[in-house]
Design a protein that fits this description.
Elements lengths: L3 E9 L3 H15 L5 E3 L6 E11 L3 H11 L5 E12 L2 E9 L3 H17 L12 E7 L5 H10 L4 E6 L2 E8 L6 E9 L3
Antiparallel strand pairs: 1-3, 1-8, 2-6, 4-5, 4-7, 5-6, 8-9
């Protein structure tokens, strides 16, 4: 019986200057006083596919699927703040990807087809390339959050390069998740 771990496939955000900009934006939402769970500085990433509880025995197959996607080394422009399900009813606050989003979507589609062949259920939501900043836990001060979303909708965070795609393990703890890289697939020139 193979060990089962919580997994996802992602592009990590590692540039310290970009992380500090994301943290400033996240902290401005925290300052609204709305109840939320902010993403830790070192956990900022773009999720390509959440897999959930997955047997470790599928790791080689998952790596092969990501390699089939042949991620390209492209510039990703992190731009604009948004919310799921909508900016007027925010539950998840995020920074979007403008330039390079089509490459992330192409990779996602190859991964999605591959994981479905492995028996994973189809993704419920349409893919939107984004970096989650925080999850709202209630509606107190929601008007302040909505106002800030409007003010920051055109914020320019800057550029990163897609260097690799990683298969990650998410270990849930009381003080927040710990992410561990299980496999790393470098992007091609």
């Amino acid at each position: 019986m193979s060990e089962v771990v919580r997994m996802f496939i992602a592009v990590d955000i590692e540039d310290p200057s970009i992380i500090s900009k994301l943290v400033r934006i996240r902290d401005s939402f925290v300052a609204t006083g709305a109840p939320m769970k902010p993403v830790e500085d070192h956990n900022m990433h773009i999720t390509l596919r959440f897999l959930g509880n997955t047997p470790l025995s599928l790791l080689d197959d998952l790596e092969r699927i990501v390699r089939e996607a042949r991620p390209k080394k492209v510039k990703l422009h992190l731009y604009g703040v948004g919310a799921f399900p909508t900016p007027t009813r925010p539950r998840v606050l995020w920074v979007g990807v403008r330039e390079g989003a089509e490459e992330l979507e192409r990779i996602y589609k190859v991964i999605e087809r591959g994981v479905r062949r492995l028996g994973f259920k189809p993704e419920r939501e349409e893919f939107v390339a984004h970096i989650t900043l925080a999850r709202l836990k209630g509606s107190r001060n929601l008007d302040r959050v909505v106002k800030l979303l409007n003010e920051l909708q055109d914020v320019d965070v800057g550029y990163i390069t897609l260097e690799s795609v990683r298969i990650k393990q998410s270990i849930l703890t009381r003080s927040g998740p710990i992410y561990k890289t299980l496999r790393e697939i470098p992007a091609e020139e």
